Amino acid sequence: MKILGLDISLRSTGVGVVERRAGQLVAVEFGLIRNAAALPHSACLANIQAQLAALLARAQPGAAALEGGFFFKNARTAMILGEARGVALAACATAGVPVYEYAPRLVKQSLTGYGAATKTQVARMIMTLLGLREPPPEDATDALALAVCHLHHQTGLVALQPQPL
Fold first, then answer.
1. Which of 34, 48, 93, 160 is the most buried if burial means most Cβ atoms within 10 Å?
2. Radius of gyration of the chain from Cα atoms?
């Protein structure tokens, strides 16, 4: 099963596709969807949608995982992230890919055994689990971590399965 992890932001969305092959986790592809600071807001959203649609068509994941549980003091920041998340959700829905949401602490705990792990600890674990020689860019690391978290939560017990958004 292939899982697409998404670390959504307007200027640098992290993406990572992880697959379980013969009991091993493999990073199929990962990277960033970048938007220049000078690019208008609507153009950034269109670019995220287009690049995610292409990735979904190319990788054909069985599910997508993204981070949930955000609280912002700045309403504008929350609105911008919400719009970018909406574009990602719509791209996945259009491709028929169910989306699952995981709290940041749960992702860290799933990978390191400690819900307050540092970004460095998560990056090292991602490198170890996926056999990477160098750490991916930070946003791509977070996306890969989300994908691995989802794979870790796939059990044979229906009652324990996460529910899609």
1. 48
2. 15
Q: Which pTM does this prediction carry?
A: 0.93
Active-site entry in 7, 19, 101, 142: 7
Give the whole-angstrom CA distance, residue 127 versus residue 124. 5
d(CA 149, CA 65): 8
pLDDT tens-digit map of 3-33: 999 999 999 999 999 999 998 999 999 999 9
For 63, phi and psi rounded to 5 degrees? -165, 165
User: What values do phi and psi take at 101, rounded to 5?
Assistant: -120, 135
Nearest to 70 by CA among 62, 61, 78: 78
DSSP letter for 77, please.
H
CA–CA distance, 148 with 142 (Å, rounded to integer): 10
Q: In 3-state terms, what secondary structure has residue 99?
A: strand
Catalytic residue among 19, 101, 139, 142: 139
Contact 147, 18 (CB under 8 A): yes
**19, 67, 101, 142: which is the annotated catalytic residue?**
67
Per-residue pLDDT of 64-78, as tens digits, reads: 999 987 677 888 888
In Å, what is the CA distance from 93 to each residue of 6, 97, 124, 129? 14, 6, 32, 29
